[in-house]
Amino acid sequence: MNLEEKLISLRRELHQHPELSGEEFQTTQKLTAWLKEAGIRILPYDLKTGVVAEIGHGSPVIALRADIDALPIEENSEAVCPSLEKGKMHACGHDFHATVLLGAALLLKQNESRLVGTVRLFFQPAEENYSGALQLIKAGVLNDVDVVFGFHNAPKMPVGEFGTCHGAIMANVDRFEINLAGVGAHAAYPENGTDVIVAASEIINSLQTIVSRNISSHDSAIVSVTRINAGSGWNILPEKAELEGTVRTFDASIRKEIQRRMRDLVYYLAKAMDVGAQFLWHEGPPAVINTPYWSDFSAKIARQFGYVTHNVTPQNGGEDFAHYLHHRPGVFFHIGTGSPQSLHHPGFNIDEKAIFPAAEYYALLAEEALKDLKNTQASA
Ligand SMILES: [Zn+2]
Ligand SMILES: [Zn+2]
């Protein structure tokens, strides 16, 4: 079996046994065993799940990251080896990411003597609930790391294509909750109560003025109310209403401004409508902000490698890879996997032809980045 065939079969093994965020025990065990089998050293970080390994020696240090967790989705795809775990599925392709990183590790290990520094491998758990990157950073994995690279499969991009950009590539992700409390009443006698449903409607409509009236047309932001919960019957005015939703932005100051405007609209409109209000803001991961130098570098190596490269527009999805780039320079890029369905869809499936080239590219990128850093160190 050649390396390409081996990687395809390892990916199928991961795909058949998906594990949810923070529960990647078997996945961690398998990855660790495969790394050890290749003689790759495992670093003794204190992690519940996930594994960090290293190839090469000394400075500079490049980190390559892949996430490894799956989603609570019942698979209904054309995959050769679909999930064997009921209600769990690798619908975001993190099995592909883990396999590509493993493949890169095996290739780098074969050429370890050629490396002019160290490549650290992050097999990161719990990306889907945005907690894994923070766990790894807290454990100290970024110590001595000069540059960090990460990627996501891009289902809409054909195999053989690559995309990245300068600056923000993925959004700030925040969640909000609005709780309204009024006085319930008979629907025939609204004057006896204070109506949370009318207040909720005013608030929802007004929230939609933030992007159109408070944000420049040259910037981008989304405010979406995604859940409303109120009422129990046709002739009762309820005393409570709950709203929930998400805000997506790319700029830190716009993120703050939207939060401020939302809070004001909720409290002042509720006051005007005579109902009580609570506004809760749950901060998710910040935007993934690429370092322009490394974004250009990754695209240059991709072209040399033979990928067709694109300058992609930022996406409104979130990625906890953002936390690494908060501490270190680096880049996040997309690799085409030509999937028929989008991420998080029960029919999601990747084209296996994308695996081996992606592993070769990831290894090449690390090796070339080490050389580049070494040259900079030498000339400094
Ligand atoms: Zn996902
Ligand atoms: Zn993902």
Please tell me about this protein's structure.
Keywords: Hydrolase, Manganese, Metal-binding. Its cofactor is Mn(2+). It comes from Zymomonas mobilis subsp. mobilis (strain ATCC 31821 / ZM4 / CP4). Residues 175-269 form the Peptidase M20 dimerisation domain. There is one protein chain. Helix content is 36%, strand content 25%. The protein has 380 residues and is an alpha/beta fold. The chain has an eight-stranded mixed β-sheet, sandwiched between helices. The protein has a four-stranded antiparallel β-sheet with strand order 10-12-8-13, with helices on one face. Helix 3 (94-110) crosses helix 9 (355-379), helix 5 (196-214) runs antiparallel to helix 6 and helix 7 (292-305) packs across helix 9.
Short description:
Residues 175-269 form the Peptidase M20 dimerisation domain. It is an enzyme of class 3 (hydrolase). With 380 residues, the chain is an alpha/beta fold.
Assign the CATH class of the largest domain: Alpha Beta
Q: What percent of the residues sit in helical stretches (DSSP H or I)? A: 25-40%
How many separate helices? Answer: 9
N to C succession of SSEs: HHEEEHEHEEEEEHEEEHEEHEHEH
Small molecules in complex:
zinc ion
Largest sheet: 8 strands, mixed
Q: What would you call the shape?
A: elongated
With strands numbered from the N-terminus, the spatial order across the biggest sheet is 1-2-4-3-5-16-6-15
Q: Any guess at the CATH architecture of the largest domain?
A: 3-Layer(aba) Sandwich
